[in-house]
TrEMBL record:
UniProt-listed Enzyme Commission number(s): 2.7.1.175
UniProt record similarity statement: Belongs to the aminoglycoside phosphotransferase family.
Low complexity composition bias: residue spans: 1-21
A Pfam family assignment: Mak_N_cap
Species of provenance: Streptomyces roseoverticillatus
Ranges of compositional bias, category Basic and acidic residues: 528-538
Keyword Aminoacyl-tRNA synthetase: no
The protein's name in its UniProt record: Maltokinase
The entry's keywords: ATP-binding, Carbohydrate metabolism, Glycogen biosynthesis, Glycogen metabolism, Kinase, Nucleotide-binding, Transferase
Chain ranges of the Maltokinase N-terminal cap domain: 56-165
Listed InterPro entries: Kinase-like_dom_sf (IPR011009), Mak_N_cap (IPR040999), TAT_signal (IPR006311)
Length: 538
């Protein structure tokens, strides 16, 4: 069971706002109506950066609009965190929120199209940028160079990814240590938390949707790159869990937000500082290490199921729950069916199984019509082996990265859902680990899956006792994986297709698949889309 942790509430301490530096005429957010001189300054800054950002932004791993052209930018807010004076050797730091305008992808917006990660309507995503500014860029920072703007307030200066500069990364921690406001930015520290000074920063390289900096093996700062109005679940849920005394999730120590007039009533969560767990290993690494020596993983999987159930219980205690009745269950089944149809239209290998897979969703809807109900609550939303850490200190499991699937709208990620969705994500992750560890077709994944459910059931009900609910969610997850692999890693399609065959034929009478079904002998090197920031030491 988790050890008790004190309840923590935000203090929102405020410091004096700093005066603007020389790069910008003022530190400001972009309101609905600018004064003419502010509009001119904004146009000059953004106009000089557009040619650089148009080339640099699509190359970043965290850029969500890959494969679609950028048709324009809008400056949402510009804040000078550290002034840079011409001729000085010290760097400057400029914080920008910019909207990248992109057209929709083929098929987006058609009737029944799923708004999830695989289909993009025309987007106007807002990105958080931290730009270092220097006259002469030192050689060790040369790989971070974005370019030298022509015209505008940064004319001729080297503009680069600021997080790669230890001096600028340290400045962010100082802002969180001594909270306050600067223009549209608001820095907050949790009540009772003391953040030490002088912690050396280290940028984590293996990222996908965000960026993370480790400070002195004590804290990790996760910066969200694509942001929107509203509290990010990776701040909201760990704070709520800390309030219940659940120690399975590192509690936020500090965070910062943007309050932008005209961009929505709620602040945008920009970054969260949490305790770092040095020496810990994530579940993906541990599973592969066990597979490499053909070691048993059931004890670890059982303990992970126990930890997951504890977190689910604490979330249900801390935040509202709802009951899913016939209308909600029919809506859930219909959404899953739409995602299946979209995937089957795009991936021929899935089509022979479409009718059988649709049956899993039909069964769920039929139970709703028969009067069956389920509880829905806040969940992790993107749970897999890479989101679980076993700590070096006591060997206990901790869960991290509660953002959910970042490509999905915030309203969808914060919606109460059945806990079966998280369970299904973890069960699918065991299959991916077995494929990478060359144990596909063995009993390893099934034993790990069973042990996880047993551990979960020791705290709450065993997920296997709700077979229709679990099958529907695991099918939905496997369908998403098929579409992802077909579009991005076709050689790995074998992994989710094996699950598709199993889920389409739970009785085990599946005939050989038709030609082109995606069955190959290649093993997949990783879980679909599973490149996430870790709280582990290298």
């Amino acid at each position: 069971m988790s050890d008790a942790a004190p309840s923590r509430r935000g203090t929102g301490r405020r410091g004096a706002s700093a005066s603007p530096g020389p790069l910008l005429s003022s530190v400001r957010a972009a309101p609905a109506a600018h004064a003419p001189e502010a509009e001119t300054a904004d146009a000059g800054l953004l106009g000089s950066l557009v040619p650089l950002l148009s080339e640099w932004l699509p190359r970043q791993r965290w850029f969500a609009g890959k494969g679609r052209p950028i048709t324009g930018f809008t400056l949402v807010a510009a804040t000078e965190l550290l002034p840079h004076h011409a001729g000085a050797t010290a760097p400057g730091l400029l914080h920008l929120l910019v909207r990248a305008q992109q057209p929709g992808s083929p098929g987006a917006g058609r009737p029944g199209a799923d708004p999830g990660p695989a289909i993009h309507a025309g987007t106007d995503d807002c990105y958080q940028l931290l730009l270092g500014v220097q006259d002469v860029l030192p050689p060790h920072l040369a790989p971070a160079l974005i370019g030298r703007p022509v015209g505008g307030p940064l004319h001729g200066r080297a503009v680069y990814e600021g997080l790669t500069d230890p001096r600028l990364a340290t400045l962010l921690l100082e802002r969180l240590r001594l909270p306050g406001r600067l223009g549209p930015l608001r820095f907050t520290r949790e009540e009772g938390v003391v953040i030490g000074a002088g912690l050396a920063p280290r940028l984590i390289g293996a990222e996908q949707s965000n960026s993370s900096v480790v400070y002195g093996e004590t804290y990790i700062l996760k910066l969200f790159r694509r942001v929107c109005p509203g509290t990010n679940p990776d701040l909201e849920l760990p704070r709520a869990l800390a309030g219940t005394g659940c120690a399975r999730v590192p509690a936020p120590a500090a965070w910062f937000e943007a309050v932008v007039p005209g961009a929505g009533a709620e602040p945008m969560t920009l970054g969260v500082l949490q305790p770092y767990l040095p020496g810990s290993a994530d579940g993906w690494q541990l599973a592969l290490s066990a597979l490499a020596v053909r070691a048993d993983f059931t004890a670890s999987a059982r303990a992970l199921g126990h930890a997951t159930a504890e977190v689910h219980g604490a979330l249900a205690e801390a935040l509202p729950t709802v009951v899913l009745r016939r209308p909600q269950l029919e809506h859930l089944a219909a959404a899953m069916t739409r995602r299946l149809d979209i995937a089957a239209d795009a991936v021929p290998a899935l089509r022979p199984y479409r009718a059988a897979l649709r049956g899993a969703y039909d069964d769920l809807a039929a139970l709703g019509r028969a009067g069956r109900t389920w509880r829905a609550q806040r969940i992790h939303g993107d749970l897999h082996l890479g989101q679980a850490l076993r700590t070096a200190e006591d060997g206990r499991w901790a869960l991290i990265d509660f953002e959910g699937e970042p490509a999905r709208p915030l309203a969808e990620r914060t919606r109460p859902q059945p806990t079966a969705r998280d369970v299904a994500g973890m069960l699918r992750s065991f299959d991916y680990a077995a494929a990478v560890g060359r144990a596909a077709g063995s009993s390893w994944p099934e034993r790990a899956r069973a042990a996880f459910c047993e551990g979960y059931g020791a705290v709450h009900g065993d997920p296997r006792e709700e077979p229709q609910l679990l099958r529907a969610h695991e099918t939905d997850k496997a369908v998403y994986e098929v579409l992802y692999e077909a579009r991005h890693r076709p050689d790995w399609l074998v992994v989710p297709m094996a699950a598709i065959r199993r889920l389409a034929d739970p009785a085990g009478t599946d005939p050989p698949p038709p030609e082109g079904s995606g069955r190959t002998t290649d093993s997949a090197p990783g879980d679909a889309g599973r490149e996430t920031p870790r709280r582990t030491a290298p």
